[in-house]
Specification:
By secondary structure, this protein is mainly α. The protein contains three helices and no strands.
Length: 105
Amino acid sequence: MYNPETDKRARVYKLFEDGRLNFFAPADYSTAGDLFETVKEILECISTKENLKAKKRELKALSTPYKLYKDVEKILGNKAGGKRIPKREQELLASLKDQVEGNTD
């Protein structure tokens, strides 16, 4: 921030160019000032990022059972070596597939 009355900006320009500031604005703390708008935009950005992280965690929770099912299917297929997978292991695989949401065939 800089004093809008003196408008001395050399210091903030240097700090900004040195990468020590991300933003600068006049020291006007009113809701009509640039500072208020910049802080508001930063907070909205943080909120959006956090919402997207939460959404990604939800999607990960949905996709994890599918990955587990496919990994076990691959292991059992390799273990069987082209032979029929034993009934107990088929039941395990079916149980894992039941935990997967949606049509994955």
